[in-house]
Write a structure and sequence with these properties.
This protein is mostly helical. 47% of the residues lie in helices and 4% in strands.
């Protein structure tokens, strides 16, 4: 939503795992809302990512823009709330590029990455677990 918790961590995880797999694929993250533009990631997100070997410290929050649909082949949402927020702002043609991130993961539940903002350390750690599953699913898809 605000691009300071889940998506910067998922971006760091995916970017790192893509690099390790030898993929040169552009990865970025953005929020559906504008209330944190320019802000650094939440300190709890940074700490949990760092503890698992991922660096999200260079990230600055931004909002999804029309240009993202030109620059990227797909926009991957963390949950249906964010997916629906984009549906209001963008055309049906653009929305064909929008998918749930975990739709690429080999996981039955959850189909969404939960927002850890009001949660505890374990909620931030769960985001990393799910980010790794989603990243690995994307790598498997691209490796075919």
């Amino acid at each position: 939503m605000g691009n300071i918790c889940r998506s910067p961590v998922v971006e760091a995880v995916v970017r790192t795992r893509f690099a390790r797999a030898g993929f040169d694929i552009a990865v970025d993250s953005a929020g559906t809302e504008d209330y944190h533009i320019g802000a650094r990631p939440d300190s709890r997100s940074l700490a949990s990512a760092r503890a698992r070997g991922y660096d999200a410290s260079a990230h600055r929050a931004r909002q999804v823009m029309h240009g993202d649909f030109e620059q990227f082949d797909a926009l991957l949402m963390m949950d249906r709330v964010n997916h629906n927020a984009l549906r209001v702002r963008f055309s049906n043609e653009q929305m064909r590029r929008v998918h749930l991130f975990l739709s690429y993961a080999d996981v039955a539940q959850p189909a969404e990455v939960p927002d850890p903002y009001y949660g505890h350390t374990t909620d931030f750690e769960r985001v990393i677990d799910l980010a790794e599953l989603g990243a690995d699913g994307l790598i498997a898809k691209f490796a075919r």
